[in-house]
Amino acid sequence: MSTISLPGGTWTLGDLTVTRFGYGAMQLAGPGVMGPPADPDGALAVLREAVDLGITHIDTAAVYGPRVTNQLIREALHPYPESLHIATKVGATRDENGGWPPARRPADLRRAVHDNLETLGLDVLDLVNLRLGDARGPQPGSLAEPFETLAELQRQGLIRHLGVSNATHEQVTEARTIAPIVCVQNMYNLAHRHDDELIDELADEGIAYVPFFPLGGFSPLQSSALSAVAARLGATPMSVALAWLLRRSPNILLIAGTSSVTHLRENVAGAGLALSDDDLAELDKIGR
Predict the structure, then answer these.
(1) What is the pLDDT of residues 12-27, one digit of tens each?
(2) What confidence category does residue 234 fall into, taking pLDDT thresholds of 50, 70 and 90?
(3) Residue 12 confidence (pLDDT)
(4) How many CA atoms lie within 13 A of 19 on its CB side?
(5) Do 74 and 119 touch, CB atoms closer than 8 A?
(6) Is 64 considered catalytic here?
(7) Which long-range contacts (CB under 8 A, 24 or more apart) does 149-154 make?
C-alpha cells in the first residue's frame, strides 16, 4: 500500500462510501478512445496503482474502446476489493468514425447494462449514469423514457444507484421525480462555472457532483491566469485545478484520468495542494 495520502476524504453515494479522489478510466483505451492501449501492461499497472493508493471510485463505460477499459478493469482488479466501487455510463454508442451517437432507447439501455455487467464481471452495477446531450454539451428535452428504463433495471436488482451525465438543471430535477439519484456528472472547472447553483443545491441534498474535463475549454487568458498561480505555488496547472475543485464543495468527486502511473501519483499529490484564501480568491476570478 502506498504511503501517499488521498486528498479530500470520502463521500457517500447512497449506501456506498467512496474516496472523493477517484480515477477515470477513459484514457486507458487507444487513440480517440478506440481500440486497445499501446501499452496494455502499463494500463493494468495504472489500475492496480489506483487501488494501491487507496482509490475506491473508478469511472468507466462500455463504450470506451468499446469494452476495452471495462475488460482492462476486470483483468487488473477482479475479484474486486469489497471497498472498490465502479461507476459506468450508458446512453451512447460508437460509430465507425469514432463518433458518440446517442443510444437511449429502452432496448439500447438494457443491452448496455448487460454489456457492462458482462465485461466487468459483475452481477450488479454499483452506479449507472444516463448520458444525455451530445458532444456540444447538455441539450434540453425530457429524459423520462430512458430514465424510467434504468429505474426498472434498478428494481430488477441489476443496478444499485442511478445518476445522470451531461444533463441540464431541468433534467436533473426531472430524473429525481422518477427515481433517486446519487450523482450528477457534468463538465465543470475553474473556467466553466455554469453549474455553480446546481452544485450548491446538490450539496444541500447530499448528492455528489462529478466534474469532467477539469482543464477543458480554457481561453488563453484563463490558462495564463491559472499558470501564474501554479508557478507561484511551485505546482502544475492541473494540480491547482484539482485542488480548487476539492475546495469548491464537499460533494465534488474527482475522476481525473491518466494512462501513466507516474502521472496518477502526481495527480493525487497535486490535488492535496494547500490553497490559501488569497489563492482561492485569485482563482475564482478566472471563471467570473
Answers:
(1) 999 999 999 999 999 9
(2) very high
(3) 98
(4) 23
(5) yes
(6) yes
(7) 149/106, 149/109, 149/110, 150/90, 150/109, 150/113, 150/179, 151/178, 151/179, 153/109, 153/110, 153/113, 153/128, 154/179
